[in-house]
Amino acid sequence: MRILLGLMWLLHFLPLPVLGRFGDAIGSLLFLLLKKRRHITLTNLRLCRPELSEAERIRLARAHFQAYSRSVWERGILWWGSEARLRRLIQIEPQVPLAAIQSRPTILLCPHFVCLDVAGVAVMLESSLCSIYTQQKNKVFDAALRRGRSRFRPVELFSRDAGVKPILRAMQKGLPYFMLPDMDFGIKDACFTPFFGIPAATLTAPARLAGASGAQVIPVVASFLPGYRGYRVEFFPPWENYPGQDIAAATRHMNQFIEQQALQFPAEYFWSHKRFKTRPPGEADFYRGTANKDA
To answer: 174: alpha, beta or left, given left = phi > 0 and alpha = psi -120 to 50?
Structure first.
């Protein structure tokens, strides 16, 4: 891992167009080598994008591997690049909503697009924040990740097992909560909500936390700019009347928003995650079997 981190540090000095093309090349290679992850990606695309031909889904899956690889290698820029370089590369639209964040408790809702770390940096250039953090198995990488994500301002990171109280306290102190809402963590604290028409175990925490704290929910989505020119981070207006009285309806609203963004940036959504791993009672495992059929 130290060798990999050293390589990332060396590569971050490259111009972004060179580093981006390097990431694309590695991603194309991984698409051929990582059969299991390719199978998961293509399974998700078959479920969520049935209107595409199989050839189109394969091209989209390959593009996703390229985008994911780019995001890993370009993380070196986020961790070690100068503040001036980051401000030059990150295009924020319309701007980090500091006035809104300072006015009341805030949840920054950041779905799993490959550039989500860019969204975190965009916020950290202007404001501290708090978030959930899963400790990495490799201690060297864990330390690098923590340093990289908190090098501009202090950040409060909480274990998922710590519950909601530390988050509520941090939000009461004025820290926005940077929340990643769309992974499958099982049915606990979740409900089956359609995602591209497929029932998906979806965390109800964004709606429940907003209701309990009176927080506003401001979605933020990060994406690549075309031509290896950098990154775009878009902050959306706060959701009105959210969550309301119906937690299930609020959770559907969140998934519908993520669907819209996944259609806008189709290669950059995290298709290689087992989004439909948890199934309603009696439903078969979508991912069961080997990856050989996608070889």
So the answer is: left
Query: Residue 4: phi, psi to the nearest 5?
Result: -60, -45
Nearest of 175, 130, 163, 162 to residue 149 by alpha carbon: 130
Which pLDDT belongs to residue 150?
85
**Beta carbons within 8 Å of 272's beta carbon, 6+ residues apart:** 37, 40, 41, 44, 64, 65, 68
Residue 145, pLDDT score: 83
> In angstroms, rounded to a whole number, what is the distance separating the alpha carbons of residues 232 and 12?
19
Residues 6+ apart with CB under 8 A from 206: 107, 109, 179, 181, 217, 243, 250, 251, 254
User: Does the pTM exceed 0.90?
Assistant: yes
Residue 207 lies in a domain: yes
The string over 223-239, giving b where at least 16 C-beta atoms fall within 10 Å of a residue's C-beta and e elsewhere, is bbeeebebbbbbbbebb
Top-confidence residue, 25 or 157: 25
Which comes out higher in pLDDT, residue 2 or 10? Answer: 10
Q: Report which of 285, 281, 286 is spatially closest to residue 192, judged by C-alpha positions.
A: 281
207: left (phi over 0), alpha (psi -120 to 50) or beta: alpha
Convert the pLDDT of each residue in 211-267 to its tens digit: 999 999 999 999 999 999 999 999 999 999 999 999 999 999 999 999 999 999 999
Structural domain of 9: 2-281
- Domain assignment of residue 271, yes or no: yes
Q: Which residues contact 116 (CB under 8 A, 6 or more apart)?
A: 110, 180, 222
Q: How far apart, in whole angstroms, are the C-alpha atoms of residue 278 and residue 270?
A: 17
Residue 290: inside a domain: no
Q: Strand pairing partners for 177?
A: 107, 130
What domain count does the chain have?
Answer: 1
Question: Is residue 117 in some structural domain?
Answer: yes
Cβ neighbours of 15 (radius 10 Å): 8
